[in-house]
Predict the 3D structure of the following.
Amino acid sequence: MAKSNANKKRRKLVREGRLNPEINRSPFSQLDLHTRKTKNKKDNMYKTKHKNRHPQQWENDSFFILKLR
């Protein structure tokens, strides 16, 4: 791969005996500070858009009314 201009400048500074700027970097620059969280109960509950909706049950809901006189 090609070297970036910043990388070329850093290597040139080291070649000339000057300080490498990478040494001055904070140790925290190498850490991944992105926080990740797992799904909790509320997230799992909101997965279904319409709560308490079971279309399979509705297909079998039938009733019969008998009027006797």
Q: What stands out?
A: The radius of gyration is 33 Å. The longest helix spans residues 5-15. The CA atoms of residues 9 and 57 lie 70 Å apart.
